[in-house]
Specification:
CATH class of the largest domain: Alpha Beta
CATH architecture of the largest domain: Alpha-Beta Complex
Strand order of the largest sheet: 1-5-6-8-7
Strand content: 15-25%
Structural class: alpha+beta
Largest sheet: 5 strands, antiparallel
CATH superfamily of the largest domain: Dipeptide-binding Protein, Domain 1
Number of strands: 19
Radius of gyration: 22 Å
Shape: globular
Length: 509
């Protein structure tokens, strides 16, 4: 048996640009999302902030990053979690072993954890949680649990999970939302009443406005510094900045108007933390629908985009050009920014060859700052190649998820894909909203998961290059992590490397 406590990959996912701005518990937003003049409620209270508002609190049935951003590692614990270096660390599982054939995981669980409904956490709850992903979850990410053959409790404090085949990905996925542990008696109303073993419990959920969390005094682990945290949702980047400047909030989780960073940097009340994410801002194509069934049209769009000019214009030059669905923090990263250099004339020629000299395409954008800002630049650049992009703005998350993600009613869209190691999820499943169907790429993804670590890296690098050359989408840039907070707030993440915004690490000096 081999003892494992480290990740098989390197740094992973991001929160949807930690787009959080929280205000104090009990504060009310004005109709413009300005925060309504709320004021802080004490040294043991924190106001953080989000822009991607959750439509509900049930991430087992609702896609999107906003819910795990708020609840994972705060209200819900998993068996394992990611640290700030992207390595897998113990959580409800204090240690684990992996069999020599890499198919059987034996977890030793903490014996003092309880759910917020008073029930004791045991291996039976872990079995229930894993099985429920496969039987009851409806979101696309549930597929990561399909490799599980059996989960069983060896004792109240020992869990054994047997996989159908070796998987480089499964334990890593257990650090994400699919690894959250649920109470067998606490899943009746997850949309409004989450029940977990975490350091915080839900105090109040004002749909579309805020989530108030209260410290769990019965928490089994280290108690968090803040007794209360309120995540406050702002639709307008200016209102978000003003809330910090006026002292209404404590933290801007990620700056939504990078051009305003200079103003915040000059204010000696604040600290600025700049790091990286692996949130790929993707100009996605509906690959199963004409004209994007023609590779030449997809290539034309890629040639039409001047990525450096785009980032300079819509995101103040703060972002990393990548050219693929792989961030530089992953071992299988390769710089593919040169595969489709900016060439409007070549784009026009390809469109003419495809019989699409001046196509009109629907660019359906979520109501998120980066998508709105960068969508206008994309429209302008495509026009120079003869492509008329008709922009529709869809409220995020509900309207965008229904129209684009579920109904596939779009030609192009722009959204940041923030789930960790998400290339296979986005382009390996023909039923996903991109509807990309390439058997060769699917075989590479399957081989990468069951092979050695070196084979995994080689296969995923090959898959990324194939996707880029085939113009399965266009990768505009990688979101930066830009955090601005009051001086004295500690524990803020330099890099956004997980699905959650872990509030338990924050403190005030």
């Amino acid at each position: 048996m081999t003892r494992l406590r480290r990740t098989l990959g390197v740094v992973a996912g991001t929160v949807l640009a930690l787009t959080v701005v929280a205000c104090d518990a009990g504060s009310k937003a004005g109709s413009d999302g300005s925060g309504g003049g709320a004021s802080k409620s004490g040294e043991d209270a924190l106001s953080v902030g989000l822009v991607a508002v959750p439509a509900s609190l049930d991430f087992t049935t609702v896609d999107g990053a906003a819910i795990p951003q708020a609840l994972l590692n705060n209200v819900y614990d998993g068996l394992v979690k990611l640290d700030q270096n992207g390595e897998i660390q113990p959580d409800l599982a204090k240690s684990w072993q992996v069999s020599d054939d890499r198919k059987t995981y034996t977890f030793d669980l903490v014996d003092n954890a309880t759910f917020s409904n008073g029930e004791k956490f045991t291996a039976d709850d872990a079995v229930f949680s894993i099985n429920r992903v496969m039987s009851d979850w409806t979101i696309s990410l549930k597929a990561a649990m399909d490799v599980v053959q059996e989960a069983k409790a060896l004792s109240p404090s020992q869990l054994q999970v047997t996989l159908k085949e070796p998987s480089n990905d499964w334990l890593y996925r257990m650090t994400t939302r699919i690894g959250a542990m649920f109470s067998k008696t606490g899943v009746d109303n997850l949309a409004t009443k989450p029940v977990g073993t975490g350091a915080y419990t839900l105090a109040k959920f004002n749909r579309g406005d805020s989530i108030a969390l209260a410290r769990n005094d019965d928490y089994w682990g280290k108690k968090p510094f803040f007794a209360s945290v309120t995540l406050k949702y702002f639709k307008d980047a200016t209102a978000l900045n003003n809330a910090l400047i006026t002292g209404t909030i404590d933290v801007i989780g990620t700056v939504q108007a990078p051009e305003s960073l200079a103003q915040l940097t000059k204010d000696d009340r604040f600290q600025v933390i700049e790091g990286v994410t692996n949130g790929e801002v993707v100009l996605s194509f509906n690959d199963s629908k004409a004209p994007f069934t023609d590779k030449r049209v997809r290539q034309a769009v890629r040639y039409a985009i001047d990525h450096k000019a785009l980032v300079d214009t819509c995101w103040a030059g703060r972002g990393t050009l990548i050219g693929s669905m792989v961030p530089p923090t992953d071992p299988w990263y390769e710089d593919l920014t040169g595969v489709y250099p900016h060439d409007p004339e070549k784009a026009k020629a390809l469109l003419a060859q495809a019989g699409q000299s001046s196509p009109t395409l629907r660019l359906r954008l979520p109501s998120l700052p980066y998508a709105q800002s960068c969508g206008q630049v994309v429209k302008s650049q495509l026009a120079q190649a003869g492509i008329n992009a008709k922009i529709d703005t869809l409220e995020f998350p509900a309207q965008w998820l229904q129209t684009v993600f579920t109904n596939h009613d779009y030609d192009m869209s722009i959204v940041a894909h923030v789930e960790p190691h998400d290339m296979a999820a986005v382009f390996g499943n023909p039923k996903y909203y991109t509807q990309y169907d390439n058997p060769r790429v699917q075989k590479l993804f399957a081989a990468a998961d069951t092979g050695t670590e070196q084979e995994q890296a080689d296969d995923l690098k090959q898959a990324a290059r194939t996707l880029s050359e085939d113009a399965a989408a266009d990768w505009l840039f990688l979101l930066p992590n830009l955090v601005v907070a009051e001086k004295g707030i500690t524990g803020l993440p330099k890099n956004a490397i997980a699905e959650s915004f872990d509030l338990t690490r924050l403190a005030r000096s």
